[in-house]
Amino acid sequence: MSLEPKKQVLFCDFDGTITENDNIVAIIKHFDPQGWQQLVQDTIDQRISVQEGVGSLFRLLPASMKDEVVRYAIGNAVIRDGFRELLDYCRDQDIEFFVTSGGIDFFVYPLLEPFGIPHDHIYCNGADFGGERIEILWPHRCDGDCPNGSCGMCKTAVIRRFPADRYERILIGDSVTDFEGARLADLVFSRAHLTAKCRELGLPHLEFSTFHDVVRGLEERQQAKKERNVR
């Protein structure tokens, strides 16, 4: 009796992946509060956690700048080419698609709104503009199995909800927030810092520039499976 084939599930980063640029860095760089460069570098180099880094960056900005910050974040972002085609492919192939983002709700939700992704398939952080400084909220914290414990938005906690014996787990990403998730994935579509990390760890990965590359990679993987089953 043949085993039931694993169902594919896809976890996609937002900043620098769905969007061309890293929106958090772009926001902070634009408003240029003192000390932001070192915080960004310390986060990328993993000297401080993502949660500490992102929280500290936004704490540099007064909450009174909410309208300016939101307007800039939404107006500055560019969606990477082929994203709608990837979503169409996932729907056609019955692949569950989740956005797993270290980004913030005030720009993640508006930018994804035109694509019809259900809100319960979008994981991201929140923001509180009610105090003197912008405070980042963390509704999707690490579970007991996370090796870091301070991811902010814990991507591995989301991935672990889909057991490896039942799901083929595919990750798309670009940077430090994707490093731990890449260790759990059956396949990684990578760019930038994530490509370097996958090479360092010997993880299976395919580099991409646009989401057309991702669709092509998924199609080729599916075709290879069919050919193996014929033999």
Automatic annotation (TrEMBL):
One of its GO terms (cellular component) is cytoplasm. It holds the Pfam family HAD. It catalyses: 2-hydroxy-5-methylsulfanyl-3-oxopent-1-enyl phosphate + H2O = 1,2-dihydroxy-5-(methylsulfanyl)pent-1-en-3-one + phosphate. GO terms for molecular function: 2-hydroxy-3-keto-5-methylthiopentenyl-1-phosphate phosphatase activity; L-phosphoserine phosphatase activity; magnesium ion binding. Signal peptide: none annotated. GO terms for biological process: L-methionine salvage from methylthioadenosine; L-serine biosynthetic process. Its EC number is 3.1.3.87. Pathway: Amino-acid biosynthesis; L-methionine biosynthesis via salvage pathway; L-methionine from S-methyl-5-thio-alpha-D-ribose 1-phosphate: step 4/6. Keywords: Amino-acid biosynthesis, Hydrolase, Methionine biosynthesis. It comes from the Bacteria. It is an enzyme of class 3 (hydrolase). CDD domains: HAD_Pase (cd07524). Belongs to the HAD-like hydrolase superfamily. MtnX family. Dephosphorylates 2-hydroxy-3-keto-5-methylthiopentenyl-1-phosphate (HK-MTPenyl-1-P) yielding 1,2-dihydroxy-3-keto-5-methylthiopentene (DHK-MTPene). This is 2-hydroxy-3-keto-5-methylthiopentenyl-1-phosphate phosphatase. The gene is mtnX.
